[in-house]
Design goal:
single chain, Four Helix Bundle (Hemerythrin (Met), subunit A), 84% helix
């Protein structure tokens, strides 16, 4: 059972990383092709919540260790910050401008978690 949980954990971690890459693609389309993709970018961003939530549950079931679970919790916090940042666009645009910076941080933490989860899934 734990083996399958670790495989799911690794799969969800890589799905999260792929979702961030897809988000960058969508915002690129909005900037360089069709502005309506901005709405798609926002919608997909909110759907990523389910991937993050599933990743947290999978991490608790897979038991990757305290540090890795802590990194997944950090990812949840970074996600909450991420979806909050665009709301500062009118009053504090410099704060809202941290949205792509936070995305880079989420991507980096996500890749670390995914690589660690892959190693865990391949062991034993």
């Amino acid at each position: 059972m734990i083996r399958y949980a670790r495989l799911v954990y690794a799969g969800l971690a890589w799905l999260f990383v792929a979702a961030i890459v897809f988000q960058v693609f969508l915002i690129g389309l909005a900037l360089f092709d069709e502005p309506s993709y901005r709405q798609t970018h926002a919608g997909v961003g909110f759907l990523i919540f389910f991937v993050v939530l599933a990743l947290l549950i999978a991490a608790l079931v897979a038991r990757p260790g305290r540090r890795d679970v802590g990194l997944v919790v950090l990812l949840v916090v970074l996600y909450v910050v991420q979806v909050s940042l665009p709301g500062f666009r009118t009053d504090y645009p410099a704060i809202a401008a941290l949205h792509p910076v936070n995305a880079l941080l989420m991507f980096s933490v996500g890749v670390y978690i995914a690589r660690s989860a892959t190693v865990l899934a391949r062991s034993k």
